[in-house]
């Protein structure tokens, strides 16, 4: 065989493997982003000291940024990558001028670096010092909502609700609204990095003394947490005009932990497979590539959490995943995360100076080696190191620890090539993130004009609408309220408000801004229904007390003078709380009040407002209330709405986003299909968008006629859960086709929902009468499509049954759901496209025919030009195959109608024709020689 022919055969073999499904399905090569190109160029110019500095996000005390301050030195000498602002470090003042002072401080921090570079600052850590290039600082903050303790800034900004309050609305657009407000206001201050939102899934609630996330989560269903998280992230990005990097927390999920992530390293007993089903699902959603890039998180905050049974061995426990390169590598190796990380996603360590980290590495508090802790975090896979208030044993302050760690890292960078490679990899991601925020590194891009502060703190009206939609009536049912509480408080009635006290202040020397929910709720009632505002109540008939004062009454320890008489005379008791764990003062006093002083609560209407997580009360506690509401958030707008609900001006419409065993509310059941619905079922019309969730409107178009061999594209309408919301993605739906066969069997196609809708396709195989319906357990009733196929074809008619199970036979034959793209439930053939099976079968047939021709030529002819015949046969077969791949005229329709059979027939013909041409070639060559 000549070299030319050998080359041709090899080329054809390679081609058959690299293009198995045709060029129409080939993904384009990803190109390096402009930000990454700039980052690479910057990295090449940086000294080791500058590179190492970019890894650090530090904290500092106070607000001073002058040349004598430690933060000035860290910026100019250690070249730190960013700072994190915290109220416990007194980075803010208040309650007056908080916003303007924060803006000025952030501007000063950025200006420090700029001025230093413009005045010819150099890096002293190299033998030949080079000028320092200006790289903007990352200015980070955590602002989870609900004021103290989850907000760092409690003054000046629009008070925003916590995540559970948003989750109770079950409307992602509300999460987007809150994210937009937060993005606009933080960006106006100059903040460019946000720790949040939390994407933890609270699938197991705790009402004992253990710590959990409480209201710091959107809820207990992974799908809805993902939906809310995507919307929130989109809001922050769009509100800030993409000038804030969003770092989603607490990766890879702390919902199952029994400790606050800041206080102690929690251990969760779950394997990686279990994590993928619950905890990781929301993180998958915000890291996957989709059409809306604003929904993708810029980074993930890696939590200090351990997993028992991570690899299936229940006796094996990982180190905290933030320090375990093996465990983190397995998680980030998942396809959803690896693609995101390749595209620039950044991993940020959780606070390395937290009590949780210190307790883990130094449980006896005798020797804490901060340098090794920070190095372990970097080598585990963290790109940006949030050092917090880290303090090594023997160091006088955090500043000293950071300086020594920086020097240690610089030395190791010059000595250890593996460490150098890891640093460069992390710094490249940090620089890429900064270039995404600021395409050019100049001071005018990084500071915001003070005029933007005029719009900060002005969005309470938008929050009021969210509050209306989130407050939830927990007990009794809304349908029972007319008999339980037929009327609101009357002008002749007295109301006593009782609550716990919340201590808060903007800094350690700032004025006390403690909150009494009882006083705030009393003031709201007086504002809306008191003198000059409806006259529904009289001010002297409203009194407010704290749980501490109630404790004094129970202990007979000098209580307020008129407290007992006020309680005796009251017609209404309104009890509010933010902390009702069994160990809390509120819980203890609540129990004692009803057991020791039953006469003070007898014959009264008792209203309970939970301004935090609603699940800390057990069934007995809840039974003491005439009505019990989950308010979730204690910000002023929510207090105002609670007052309006008390006076029945607003009907609560929120729905619990977590399970509540004390009232028998199970979230899995609540989010399953509602059995009291008739599932819409329809034929998907040509040209209708695959991703559409709209139910097609009635049309005057003539109905389509279907024949044997046709595919009927089917879809449901939006399937709703028990709460009236679309069911989560992945809900199993079964399309049932009754062919009226003698056996009574029913064909079944199983698929899953996307955006509440399920899609599939059914191929008509013979003439006859067909009934098609759909079920989604426990919902069994749907519209029914009737189709009678004759030789001339048939049309589909639809009718809607009553809400009673139909008498259709139990399915006995199951058709597995066809593998389809995420946003499309039609097979490749039904879309006129080739499948992997077509390539495999075609290749087998092509080479089989070629082999036969080669054998025939060798046995019968035995001439040296013989190999041209099988080579030409292979070419002929693949020419026909690529005709279908490219989709030339007639190809798509043929595939739709006849599938693989048609393809193979034409491939065989192409191979034979190619072989014939090869034989003709061979004959002509032979005749020339003769």
CATH superfamily of the largest domain: Glycoside hydrolase, family 3, N-terminal domain
Give the fraction of residues assigned to helices: 25-40%
CATH topology of the largest domain: TIM Barrel
- What value does the Rg take, in angstroms? 34 Å
**What is the end-to-end distance?**
21 Å
Q: Show unreliable segments.
A: 17-30, 806-826
- CATH hierarchy class name of the largest domain: Alpha Beta
Biggest sheet character:
8 strands, parallel
Strand content: 5-15%
Number of strands: 28
Under the CATH scheme, the architecture of the largest domain is: Alpha-Beta Barrel
User: Looking at the structure, what is the overall shape?
Assistant: flat
Protein architecture, described:
The chain has 930 residues and is of the alpha/beta class. It has 4 domains: 49-449, Glycoside hydrolase, family 3, N-terminal domain (TIM Barrel, Alpha-Beta Barrel); 471-669, Glycoside hydrolase family 3 C-terminal domain (Rossmann fold), CATH 3.40.50; 673-690 and 702-827, Immunoglobulin-like; 834-929, no CATH class. It has an 8-stranded parallel sheet, sandwiched between helices. A 7-stranded mixed sheet has the order 20-27-26-25-22-23-28, with no helix packed on it. The longest helix has 39 residues, at 891-929. The protein starts with a helix and ends with a helix.
Task: Give a short summary of the structure.
This protein has four domains: 49-449, TIM Barrel, CATH 3.20.20; 471-669, Rossmann fold, CATH 3.40.50.1700; 673-690 and 702-827, Sandwich (Immunoglobulin-like), CATH 2.60.40; 834-929, no CATH class. 38% of the residues lie in helices and 14% in strands.
